[in-house]
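Quick one, tokens below. Sequence please?
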């Protein structure tokens, strides 16, 4: 599976993780910029990748 978080930041005021990701869904490439609510900032890039992947799957379906 091709999936990569391009950039991310934690918005302390709104308690949310803003991010941009790219990848492929089947043979179709995608690029998405979105956010997800998080009560605390992520502690690692791996955690960001997991959160972002789950959010994108929720939006696009299986990636």
């Amino acid at each position: 599976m091709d999936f990569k978080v391009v950039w991310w930041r934690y918005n302390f005021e709104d308690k949310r993780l803003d991010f941009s990701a790219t990848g492929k869904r089947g043979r179709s490439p995608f690029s998405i910029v979105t956010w997800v609510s998080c009560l605390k900032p992520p502690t690692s890039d791996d955690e960001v990748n997991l959160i972002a992947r789950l959010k994108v799957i929720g939006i696009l379906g299986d990636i």
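The chain has one helix and three strands. Strands lie at 3-11, 16-25, 28-37.
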